[in-house]
Amino acid sequence: MRQARSVKPTLSIVGAGRVGRALGQRLRERGWQIGAVVTRSVATARAAVRAIGAGRPAARLGPDVLRADVILLAVPDDRLPSLARSLAKLAGRGSRGKIVLHTSATLGRSVLAPLARRGAATGSIHPMQAFGGKIVPNLQGVIFGVEGDRKARSTAQSLARSLGGVPVAIATHDKPIYHAAGVMAGGSLYPVVEAGIALLMRIGFTRPRASETLLPLVRQILDNIERLGPRAAWTGPLSRGDYKIVAKHARALCRHPREIRQSYAALARLAGRLLSKRPAVARREIERALGRRRRRTV
């Protein structure tokens, strides 16, 4: 006797920007049924449906959104409170039994309280991954921070596993720290790498040559960190205690924008505190190398 195939839940997506499109596309590839796809205009909704490969485009909330088993709200944080109120007003008693998840990295389920009061299960799911430009990232092995009431959290965990990710429960009050960790480790790379490119361009490198110089270095460092951990992989003048080179860098950077000088100094201090085997000694030597003791604030 042939066994019946399990049917994946239906998913409506409200706010199909980078995150909403990427999650919708990956879930559609894994058998989830895509329902309404809602954005601010018909044109962007249709574009989102084309990118996802399924769904029914809409420019405003309507009954079609509520026909799905799961409603995913992938909008900016500041839009979530009003969206939750509008959706709760639209659904009324029809909220009962629905599962509503948002994708904010910092907000908890309380922002969806209007829906919870009408009987919806509410929570959040956030992939710790970069969604840049038109690139749809591979979510295999990616950590998904999940939070919410029991039913919503269980659904978020199932959704994350469908994407090949690893769900990790995050307490509501810990979500800002969870996100700050990602921004420090990942988001800070954008300006830091751009600063390195800018410095090389100031001494005659073209932008392509500057990128070609630095990006393999960044990739190798990340590979080393993955294999060895930050402390064991740490290299460069600070790791060797070569503070004369740090002083030379500080003097050379005096001719460059203040933000770059300050960033170099802040990163040196952070490395001394977190990676050095003797943080107190490193801190003292770094300050001397940066010339802090020789300067007076006015």
Describe the structure.
The protein is an alpha/beta fold and about 300 residues long. It folds into 2 domains: about 10-170, Rossmann fold, CATH 3.40.50.720; about 185-295. Helix content is about 50%, strand content about 15%. The chain has 13 helices and 8 strands. It has helices at about 20-30, 40-50, 80-90, 115, 150-160, 175-185, 190-200, 205-230, 230-235, 235-240, 245-255, 260-275, 280-290; strands at about 10-15, 35-40, 55-60, 70-75, 100, 120-125, 145-150, 165-170. The protein has an 8-stranded mixed β-sheet with strand order 3-2-1-4-5-6-7-8. Helix 4 links the parallel strand 5 and strand 6. Helix 11 packs parallel to helix 13 (about 280-290) and helix 12 (about 260-275) packs antiparallel against helix 13. The longest helix is centred in the C-terminal third of the chain and has 22 residues, at about 205-230. The protein is elongated, with a radius of gyration of 24 Å. The N and C termini lie far apart (about 85 Å). The model is unreliable at about 295-298 (pLDDT under 50).
